[in-house]
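Obj: model holo form, ligand = NAP.
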Amino acid sequence: MRILVTGATGTLGGAVIPALLKAGHEVRALSRTKRNGRGNVEWMWGDLVSGNGVREAVDGVDAIAHLATSGRKGRGAVDVPGTRTLLTLARAAGVSHVLFTSMVGADRAAHGHLRHKLAAERLVTESGLGWTILRATPFHQWLHARLGEFAALPVLPVDRSLPWQPVHTGEVATRAAALLSAGPAGREIEFGGPHVINTEELVRTWLRAAGLRRACLFVRYPGRLYAAQRAGDLTTDAVPKGEITWYDYLLPPPAMSDESDDFASEHTASPTSPANQPECDPDLHVYGGDEGYERPTRG
Ligand SMILES: NC(=O)c1ccc[n+]([C@@H]2O[C@H](COP(=O)([O-])OP(=O)(O)OC[C@H]3O[C@@H](n4cnc5c(N)ncnc54)[C@H](OP(=O)(O)O)[C@@H]3O)[C@@H](O)[C@H]2O)c1
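Output (holo structure tokens):
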């Protein structure tokens, strides 16, 4: 199949492209930055908010992996109007399947950014196109970046009552590629990490991996979204689930052989190992990063 990937330069996009290529698909990748096509990835310029370039991007594709987002601070500009534009043009172009990535809890706790994800889900389910919604829990890589900012504080306010279920983007990407290969599921599918841990464990594991010491002040975060998270609305029991734990991601086992060295360099982003940070250039993901992603085995 020829598959358009929106959000191709993002954290998940960088893992979804190699997963789709590995599954034998042709990939067209959308970005607001102009890039030259390389190998079997065709890069196209387009902006989901203005709509420029989107008609050309959907022309001739069989399916769309719609990963683009304007994030928590973007007021849903890409998730809602951008998704509407994409779906309208995809329908006109005869696209048969749209897979939309949403967040676990969007249906149960539609507050803050999650309400934009739920609004976009509704656009997808009512689009008349074949659809699949993949709701994931927070990515290891996203939490790692947020904790890097958080640790700038000398004392960390930590709410121990909040459950988290971090998941690895490589595993989300593998699931997304399998769902695209299978065709429209016509349902919402949840995918979370292997363990639910609280904020204290999340932060302490990260500090240990970063080699940092910070005092933690135990607090209770206010707001409806945190209340929903506290009640377990942002975690999932759905199976299958990811296998790579937060601990393994940050503190991989010592290299025992060439194989386990690959595990450390390709599947972790230990704050203590700058060489292990996720690549910024998605071309690097495609041609050497998460390519051929497989669940690492521990020696
Ligand atoms: N991060 C998490 O922990 C998490 C957890 C669960 C679900 N999700 C979902 O997974 C998906 C991917 O998330 P991510 O963290 O990989 O996203 P990300 O790293 O923030 O990347 C956002 C992507 O959206 C694209 N984009 C932004 N504005 C655009 C516009 N106007 N037109 C076209 N493209 C635009 C960007 O491409 P350019 O800048 O190249 O144009 C970029 O590739 C999203 O649907 C997100 O809601 C994320």
